[in-house]
């Protein structure tokens, strides 16, 4: 079975989460410039108005995402094992036919070959459907992940008085520099995990 049929959940969730973390943008046309401060350990003040969250850390420490990752790794592994078992059973059937082909009549060979060709086609269709079903389920879960993070950040930004929550991800970020005092990742993770543990 081609491994690409079942996409890694982490890549999908990372793209979704990056979008989610940008969901708290205010439509205010004013721009705020972040300034470098002497102390990188100072608490974030609501007057800063713009903060950022490290999405890499969020993905590794948010319990809801970790549970989803385990869930889909298990489903992917089961789907791959199922396809491998079906593929091996089909290969055994083909090998049996090849061994007995010389003793069969022309009509029997033709009939068996047609049956095996149909079975191979059914196996390929099953593989595609299984992969598609898993991807659809992942898309639904990604939407839930997006909603959870976006809803939490909207409330969090409103409560703190922030006008914008940016996202930072190593190798995939529009932020070239930000003072560490603007990093609210730990606080956001703590809040998201507390919210998740109540359910």
UniProtKB/TrEMBL annotation:
InterPro entries: Chaperone_Skp, Skp_dom_sf. Keywords: Coiled coil, Signal. Belongs to the Skp family. GO terms for cellular component: cytosol. SUPFAM superfamilies: OmpH-like. It comes from Pedobacter zeae. Gene3D superfamilies: Skp domain (3.30.910.20). One of its GO terms (biological process) is protein stabilization. This is Outer membrane protein. One of its GO terms (molecular function) is unfolded protein binding. Residues 109-136 form a coiled coil.
């Amino acid at each position: 079975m081609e491994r690409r049929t079942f996409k890694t959940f982490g890549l999908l969730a990372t793209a979704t989460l990056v979008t989610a973390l940008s969901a708290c943008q205010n439509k205010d046309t004013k721009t705020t410039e972040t300034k470098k401060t002497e102390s990188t350990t100072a608490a974030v003040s609501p007057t800063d108005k713009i903060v950022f969250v490290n999405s890499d850390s969020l993905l590794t420490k948010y319990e809801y995402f970790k549970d989803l990752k385990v869930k889909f790794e298990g489903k992917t592994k089961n789907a791959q094992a199922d396809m491998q078992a079906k593929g091996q059973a089909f290969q055994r059937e083909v090998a049996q036919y090849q061994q007995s082909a010389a003793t069969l009549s022309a009509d029997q060979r033709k009939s068996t070959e047609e049956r095996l060709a149909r079975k191979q086609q059914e196996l390929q269709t099953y593989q595609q459907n299984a992969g598609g079903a898993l991807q659809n389920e992942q898309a639904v879960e990604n939407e839930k992940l997006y909603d959870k993070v976006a809803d939490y950040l909207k409330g969090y930004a409103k409560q703190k008085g922030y006008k914008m929550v940016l996202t930072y991800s190593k190798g995939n970020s529009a932020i070239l520099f930000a003072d560490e005092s603007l990093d609210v990742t730990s606080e956001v993770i703590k809040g998201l995990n507390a919210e998740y543990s109540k359910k």
